[in-house]
Specification:
Layout: H1 2-25, H2 31-63, H3 68-77, H4 79-82, H5 91-94
Helix pairs in contact: 1-2
């Protein structure tokens, strides 16, 4: 789900950039339409940045064989999880 949300945001950002440029450079365009397009583009950029970062973090968790709870709670308090997960089989086998 995170992959598809990230890919969709990146697709929207790259394909709507020419529309944004046309709206900002054109004179006499309805300000409501321009506001809607600029706001939608900014929201897609922010959402895409956040989702892509969250997806990258979860890929790192998988490659190091951590669950989210193990990363947040056990990593700091349990000596067994301090350096690496005891369930880590290597990056390729973890996937």
């Amino acid at each position: 789900m995170l992959f598809y949300a990230s890919a969709t945001c990146i697709l929207i950002i790259t394909t709507s950039y020419p529309v944004l440029g046309a709206v900002l450079s054109r004179e006499g365009i309805d300000y409501k339409l321009a506001y809607f397009i600029v706001t939608a583009y900014v929201l897609a950029c922010v959402f895409g940045f956040l989702i892509t970062g969250f997806f990258s973090f979860h890929l790192w968790l998988i490659s190091n064989q951590y669950t989210t709870i193990e990363f947040c709670e056990k990593r700091g308090s349990d000596a067994q999880f301090a350096v690496k997960s005891p369930y880590n089989c290597g990056t390729l086998k973890n996937f």
